[in-house]
Every structure is written in C-alpha cells, then in structure tokens.
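Dear colleagues,

I hope this message finds you well. In preparation for our joint manuscript, I am sending the Protein NDNF (Nesospiza acunhae) sequence together with its predicted structure, so that both groups work from identical material. I would be grateful if you could confirm receipt.
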Amino acid sequence: LKMSWLWLYLPLHLLLATCLCHSIKAPTTSSQQSSKSNLFNFYHSLILADGKETTIHLLKDIPKRYYFVLEEGRALAPFSITVTPCDVPIEWSILVYKSPPGKAAPGDRDTQEVSKSHKASSMVSTIFSYKGNSVETYMGMSSHSALYLLEFLSTERDTHITVYLTTDTTSGHLYPELPGDPRIDVIGIGHTTVTLAWKHSPSVLQHSEGIQYCLLVNEKHNYKSLCAAETAIRSSGMKLPPTVALSLSPYLLEPQQVMILSNSELSIINKVSSGEVRQVCMGTKNTYTVPNLSPSTQYYFDVFIVNLLTNASAAYTGTFARTLEEPEPEVTELEDGKVVHVVLDGKKQKFYSLQYQARHKKIHFTFQLCRGQIRVHITRNGKTVASENLSGLRYFSLKGKLLDTYSVQLRSTEESNSSVKVLASPHFHKPLFPLLPESLKIKSFSKLRTCRSVTIAWLGTQEESKYCVYRKRIEEDQIWRELQSADRCSGPEFRHKSEKVLCKYFYDLNLQRAVTTETIKGLEAGTLYLFDVYLFGPSGIPVRYHSKVVKTRKKC
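The corresponding structure tokens are as follows:
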C-alpha cells in the first residue's frame, strides 16, 4: 500500500509515532523545525471526549493540547466545539492534520528528505483561532477522516475553562438555546427596585421541564458565563454552591450566604468584599423585579438559561441600571438639651434627618439605640465628621466653629422597626443620660437557683444611681418574642405594679467591686421568669439592661 492510504488503517498511536519519525529524520531547516513542532504537539496531546463537557485547568504560559478524530465512513462529518473561559481571556486555536507524508519520488536521498519535509509541513493547518474571554463556538464540516488538535493558552494567570465537543448535531444541544435577540431590557427603575424583561429561550418553549432562568445581580460588572461569575465570587473569598445553587439544596450554603425562598423563587445573597452578589432562580418567568436595592447605586444584571439536568447554561447579554436617588427626608431641628425619640419603619421610612446649629464651639451628640439596627452619619457644613453603626449608648464630642450647621442622618439597616433617642448639647452641659457600666448583661447563678428563688447580679458604676428590678412570668413560646420586642430605652412606667421587685441605690469607686446581687424570692417551682433591671441617671432617663430568662428548679 502507498503511504497516502496506509495511514487510514494504522492505529492512531502508530500513526503519531510514524509522523514523529518522519519529522526527526528531516534536516533541521526552519520550515522543518516548524513541521517537527506541529507533529510533536500531536504526539503530546490528550484525547477530547465527544458529547461531554470537559473542564480543563491551564497554568500560566504553559499550553495545553487535546485532539480528536472524526468518524470514518461518513460523506460529511459535522462537528462543533464550544469553549467557555471561566476567568481571564485565553488564546485557543484548532489545527487539522489533513494528510500524512506520501512516498517520495525517485531520486537521491537528499531530494527524498526535502520532499518528505515539504509534505510534512503541509500536514497541519490552522482553521480557527480566538483570543478573549467570551463563550465562542466553532462549527465545522469535514468530507474525510481527519485528526484535529486544540491548543489552549493562558498568558495572564492560572485559570480553567470548559470545552464541549460534539459530532452529533441532530439529537439536540447540551447548552440551552438563546433567542435571536438575547438582550435584557430594563423596563422599570425605582429607588430600591429594578424591573427586567427578556425574550424567551426556545429551549423553554420546547422543554419547560428542567429548564429555568437564573439572575445574577452585583455592583462590579457583567459576566459572560456562569462559570466566570462563580470564579469571580470565589476569588473574593466566598465559596459558592455549584451552578448558582441550582440544586436548590440549602445545606450547600456557606455562613456568609443568606437563602430566601418565597413564591417558588430561590434567592441567595453572598456577602463579599465588593458588596452583595444576589442570585435568583425564578423558573420560566421572563420578567423579574429585583427588590431591596440601595438608592443611587449602579447594579449589573446577568440572566442565564440553565438546564438543571446537565447544569449547562447560556448567558444573555448583560445589562446595568442605576437606582433612583432617595428623596430628601424631612428635617427636624435639634434643640439644646432636648431629647428627640426617632422611630424608623424599616419597610416604609428608612431615613430620618436632624439638623443642629451650633451656638458653642464644642458640641456633644448622644445616641441611645432603643431597638433594631441603625447607622448614623454626621456632617458639619456638608463634610462627614462621623459615620458608624450604633450600639447601646454612643457619644460623639465634636469641635468646630460658632454657627456651624450639623446634619444627622439616621438609617435603618433592617426591615423591622428601629428606634433611637438623640440628644445634642454643648460639651460642658451636664449629661442627661446615666453613666453606663462596661456591660448591660444580667447574670444568673445556676447553683443558687431553688424551687422558690433565683439569684441575679449586674454591674454598676462609680456614680451613685438608682436600679429597679422587675420580674415577669412567661411561657416557653413567649421567650423569643419578649427578647426581640424589648425596647432598651423604655422605662418601667408602663409595667404592672405587681411585676416590680425592688429598687436600690449603689456605686463603688473601684470598678472591680462595682457589682451587686439580688435574690428574688416567692417564685413558683419549674416556672420561667423574665427579669429586667432599669438604671436611672441624675435626670431620670432610664437605661434598660438586657433581659434575662431564668427557670426555677422543679424539685428541691
């Protein structure tokens, strides 16, 4: 048999070895060196599976090669290759090995070797090459059996990609289909919401089961593939459930993630250094209103059509939108030495503004957090001087000029109601709030519990103050509600007289000894009690310690 026919019958590894031998024998001219390099690439390649998505890990500046052989005995052999970069841009190309070196024409040995080298150099040709981070698909057709080589290279850093090869183009697609117009339309923008719409995927219309849309929302940029988004989130220090938690398994969540399931929609919020990354899977609905966004913030939106059976996905063309600015809240004037009690509805009114004009150079702001979570932002003549989340009792001592204008903006950071007391006064003004101990916790002593009594203790201060103890009998199912609804600014004036246990004064100049204990008697066995301690300062404004639940012993 002639060499031009023999290669069709040789096993693949023998063919590669034969090609390699021809390349080694050729003289080392520049064209022959190129021929040897191409043949060497074939010899050191891995086979690429047909009909299966393959994940390939690339090391920086080190090329990786895969090959495949088209099936023999077919008049036309169609095939397609889809490459999905999962991080940085990569370079990839497809080379085809069309024909092996034929039998040399008669003549001297040098002529034969030159002829072999010339034919070897014509074996390999590049039919496609690409550089970038977009998902790219090459579709080809071959009229004869051929050997193909795929070469991948990352020049920026280590990364990974997915590659899908198929020679069966008639039995459907691994990846869901995108519509002719894959853009996402922004059809509504609010202060905290953005409404999106997109055209249906043909895959949803044909196979609604196992196909659904998933939305990714972030404040950084759009992503061209689902694996690119997952890689970016992981690089921020976040572990992500595979394929946007499409398995809908709550146990896959990490501590930094919050899962919300409502109205058949799964939402996962990831807390990362660059802000929140939200993932929502909404079935086959092609419109969605993204809630709970921040005002005056730019967000990027990506929609993926996902096959839940194969975890394969296709990305719509991402879009972005900026939420509207929050309308200016009404401003309340602060007066010297007057306490203002601000209540914020987390769902309706998240912001509240106060204004104060200084009549002294030194100003003292006091904030007593009563309930919920609140962030305070203070500016002087438009420039920020303080900004932080409030906790307990917080003082800010600021120095400026006469008639400086201070603006205090309070913002609720949760959806439940929040409240805070605010006081502005000259720095030398006698404080209205009592001096607080290091901790507002109430401690109970388990060993001192009996069927009829409980012993509790709390810290005091170096300033003589009044402390009042209250008790309340509760049931097991009331514990959470009582603790969550407690207003740390409220006094005992609305409590029933029967709940009052005692009031006492005490202090100690040595803070190490500024602690007091009380044994509350006359209790019932095996019963839950809620204990509260109220601290009253010179002005009579109360501060409530953290409530303590204690159960008396059943048997003694």
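For the figure legend, we might mention the following. Confidence is low (pLDDT under 50) at residues 1-42, 101-122, 239-265. The longest strand covers residues 298-307.

With kind regards,
E.M.
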